[in-house]
Amino acid sequence: IQLFDFGVNSGTSRAAKAFQGLLNTLNNRGKYYRDIDVDGGIGPMTMTALEGFYRSRGDYGLDVLTKSLNGLRVAFCVAIAEGNESQETFVYGWLSRVVNL
To answer: Tens of pLDDT along 5-40?
Structure first.
């Protein structure tokens, strides 16, 4: 749900790249699965990496992955407002959506 919401609100490619990057950084230097290309498309290689992540980290790992993805979303929203002061009007709503999803 968090990945879908990220894609709807920030673009599917951005969401997929954040997800792929997290999977790569959480694989303990290739111990659990091979690094994947951070290409913005969730296909068989990304799903294989997710399966490897789940096998090694379980349900708690999925919680960590999800909360980490939400952290990246928060950072992205803050960066938008930092780069364009007119967006400060919206940032509280964006952040509320992410933390309450």
So the answer is: 999 999 999 999 999 999 999 999 999 999 999 999
Are the CB atoms for 57 and 64 separated by under 8 Å? Answer: yes
Distance CA 92, CA 81 (A): 10
Query: What DSSP string describes 59-92?
Result: HHHHHHHHHHHHHHHHHHHHHHHHH-GGGHHHHH
Query: Could you tell me which residues come within 8 angstroms of residue 45 by beta carbon, excluding any fewer than 6 positions away?
Result: 36, 37
Centre a 10 Å sphere on the Cβ of residue 94 and count the other Cβ atoms it contains. Answer: 19
pTM here? 0.91
Please, what's the b/e burial string for 5-40 (b: 16 or more CB within 10 A of its CB; e: otherwise)? ebbeebeeebbbbbbbebbbebbeeeebbeebebee
Q: Which two tokens stand for residue 95?
A: 């952040």
Q: What percent of the chain has pLDDT over 90?
A: 98
